[in-house]
Amino acid sequence: MLKDEKSQDRNQLLTNIPFNYDGYWNFIYKVLTKFNQECSDVLVVFDGVFKHNANRRPDPERTSSLRFTEFKASQNQLPSLFRREFIDILRELDIGVNVARGEADPMIVRLAQDRNAYVVAADSDYHLYDLPQGYVPLKFLNLRALKGPLYQMNDVFAGMDIRGVALWASLIKYNFVALTNLQEFLSTTQAYDRKEFESWLDSTEPDEQKRHLITTEWLLLRFIQQVGSATAYNQLIQL
């Protein structure tokens, strides 16, 4: 950005080509300024370039995947102009920036553990990690007030050890076991709160395909909680 441009409203600094991010920079600047003022330290971590795991189940509504463009044989990369402009704002505010070599999740988790920090992100995978201060979903965070729900792993996976959580995640997110086989196996699982779950599902999700997937996720959670990670692994791995 040129020196004489800094005094202009960011919305006036339009690009010479159609650019869908024009009009958002004032808001982003205000939000990041709020983070800087309210937090003792702020660090933003970007994904690097990485390939999709071929065994991952497709999930077109996955929030993080919607933010990427295809790049060189199914690799992912943020649009370059978006990244460059965003980093310019971070540098202007003296906010730290890290870029992972591949997917950023492992780096973010390690940094959060080392720094005893919160993770704010738009990726439900952080429910799966044992984070010292917990995970705040960006979707539910009031960006003007910096207030929102805070989750620890035990809030979602109550009574499960890290092996049980890893088993649940592996079977739900990857196609090591066919989804139809998993659904058939879990169909006989008894759960004390099944009526409450079905009532909640009826009131929130009309799409039948999504209902089946959410039900499978919930039944697998209850199954592992009931029998423990070791027994669950021994039975499920045979599917």
Topology:
Layout: H1 25-38, E1 43-46, E2 50-51, E3 69-71, E4 75-77, H2 80-92, E5 96-99, H3 105-115, E6 119-121, E7 135-137, H4 153-156, H5 162-173, H6 179-186, H7 194-204, H8 208-227, H9 229-236
Parallel strand pairs: 1-5, 6-7
Antiparallel strand pairs: 2-4, 3-4
Helix pairs in contact: 5-9, 6-8, 8-9
Radius of gyration, in Å, reads 21 Å
Strand order of the largest sheet: 2-4-3
Task: Based on Cα principal axes, name the global outline.
Answer: elongated
Helix/strand order, N-terminal first: HEEEEHEHEEHHHHHH
- CATH topology-level name of the largest domain: Rossmann fold
Q: What does this protein structure show overall?
A:
The chain is elongated, with a radius of gyration of 21 Å. About 40% of the residues lie in helices and about 10% in strands. Residues about 60-75 have low confidence and may be disordered. Helix 5 (about 160-175) packs parallel to helix 9 (about 230-235). The protein has two domains: about 5-155, Rossmann fold (3-Layer(aba) Sandwich), CATH 3.40.50; about 160-235, no CATH class. The N and C termini lie far apart (about 55 Å). The chain is mainly alpha-helical and about 240 residues long. The chain is built from nine helices and seven strands.
